[in-house]
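[step 3/7] fold_predict: job queued, chain A
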Amino acid sequence: MNPLNHVAIIMDGNGRWGLKNKKSRNDGHKAGLSTVERILKESLRQKIKYITLFTFSTENWKRPKKEINFLFSLLETFLKEKTNQLNNQKIRLKIIGKINFSKKLNQIIKSSEKKTSKNKKLQINLALNYGSKNEIINSIKDNIKEKKKINEKNITNKLYTRNIPDPEILIRTGDTNRLSNFLLWQLAYTEIFFEKKLWPDFNEKDFKKIIKKYKTIKRNFGNI
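[step 4/7] structure written:
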């Protein structure tokens, strides 16, 4: 049976869910947050150590300003209301990506990270203002600056995910079959599951079904 330490998720379909249900895109984002909480609870039950959620990409800045402002307001509220709860559950919160937001949000993020930094039951990586190509380029630049060899180990050691095992599973909801500049280096040998459901409709049963299927896959890593 395959071990499972790290699940990465592209939470696609929030906006479409909102419009489909005769609401706004922002209502879809709010509904998607409820799904996040359910999946985190199931991850604890499954004893998964790392969950990485694609929350806001470097390309998402192209969206309408009103929607962007709502997304960050939602994040701010979540961190304010849930950090203590995460800490009590021994969950660590880590941001991967360039933290370059409002002064207020930057402070809230840093405070949440610091408060939960010693927790080891589950680590949630929120990919915020994240783009994998930039991450790889910056890693190479850092190695050149430090006059280190450009090899797999040194590039890995300068990524946001250093000291975190690569994901065994990637789930993308929303009936879209692409990676969208997410963890391109880290997903080299990840089992990928594309899910037709929009993110707010995704549930614990769907999550457990994917985990069950993953555990039956023969993983060769280039071997026979």
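[step 5/7] annotate
DSSP finds seven helices and six strands in the chain.
The beta strands are 6-10, 50-57, 91-96, 122-130, 169-172, 191-194.
exit 0
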